[in-house]
Amino acid sequence: MNTFLIDAGNTRIKWALAASDAPLGVWLAYGAVMHADAAQLTEAWRGAVAAHGAAGKVIVANVAGADRRALLESMLEMAGVAQPSGIDWFASVAERAGVRNGYRTHGQLGCDRFAAAIGAHALVPGQALIVANCGTATTIDAVTADGAFLGGMILPGLGLMATSLARNTAQLPQIAQGGKLPSGFADNTDDAILSGLLAAQAGAIERACALHGAQACLVSGGAAQYIAPALGAHVPYRLVDNIVLTGLHAAARSE
Ligand SMILES: Nc1ncnc2c1ncn2[C@@H]1O[C@H](COP(=O)(O)OP(=O)(O)O)[C@@H](O)[C@H]1O
Ligand SMILES: CC(C)(COP(=O)(O)O)[C@@H](O)C(=O)NCCC(=O)O
Ligand SMILES: [K+]
Question: Which residues bind substrate (predicted)?
Answer without folding.
Answer: 103, 110-113, 189
